[in-house]
TrEMBL record:
Known function: Regulator of autophagy that contributes to antagonize BECN1-mediated cellular autophagy at the endoplasmic reticulum. Participates in the interaction of BCL2 with BECN1 and is required for BCL2-mediated depression of endoplasmic reticulum Ca(2+) stores during autophagy.
Organism lineage: Eukaryota, Metazoa, Chordata, Craniata, Vertebrata
BP GO annotations: autophagy of mitochondrion; regulation of autophagy
Assembly and interaction partners: Homodimer.
Swiss-Prot/TrEMBL cofactor(s): [2Fe-2S] cluster
SMART domains, alphabetized: ZnF_CDGSH (SM00704)
Alphabetically ordered keywords of this record: 2Fe-2S, Autophagy, Endoplasmic reticulum, Iron, Iron-sulfur, Membrane, Metal-binding, Mitochondrion, Mitochondrion outer membrane, Transmembrane, Transmembrane helix
Protein name, per record: CDGSH iron-sulfur domain-containing protein 2
Transmembrane segments: 38-56
Taxonomic source organism: Carassius auratus
Pfam families documented for this protein: MitoNEET_N, zf-CDGSH
Keyword Nucleotide-binding: no
InterPro entries the record matches: CISD1/2 (IPR045131), FeS-contain_CDGSH-typ (IPR018967), FeS-contain_mitoNEET_N (IPR019610), MitoNEET_CISD (IPR042216)
């Protein structure tokens, strides 16, 4: 039943659809098409564009994902992880950690996403920790 329906579409309905399309004889003929004729061509042009894109897609250059790149290029590269602690007198909470890897789901607050980032990239970025200064 399903194969019969597909066969009918391919053998009967598709050729009938293609015969009714307003395809001009020359390239200049496209300029003379009316809006309604262009609208009738849209489904075919969309399908041809999609097929063309899917055909060339494997040959397109791959974009490097931002998540795969280093963030810290030159600061304290000799340390396994760069973490700075700053004492501040007027801090309401005892400790606040701010993200410097730009991967935190709770940005600007650190959620320790730098650990996974460092494992994947070999980077050494860590949080900025603000501590309440004890007098």
């Amino acid at each position: 039943m399903v194969l019969e329906s597909i066969s009918r579409i391919i053998k009967i309905q598709l050729p009938a659809y293609l015969k009714k399309l307003p395809l001009p004889e020359t390239i200049g003929g496209f300029a003379r098409l009316t809006v309604s004729e262009w609208l009738r061509l849209l489904p075919l042009l969309g399908i041809l564009s999609l097929l063309g894109y899917l055909t060339i897609r494997p040959f397109l250059p791959k974009k490097k994902k931002q998540r795969d790149s280093l963030i810290n290029l030159k600061i304290q590269k000799e340390n396994p992880k760069v973490v700075n602690e700053i004492d501040i007198e007027d801090l309401r909470t005892p400790n606040v950690c701010y993200c410097r890897c730009w991967r935190s789901k709770t940005f600007p607050v650190c959620d320790k996403s730098h650990i996974k980032h460092n494992e994947l990239t070999g980077d050494n970025v860590g949080p900025l920790i603000l501590k309440k200064k004890t007098l």
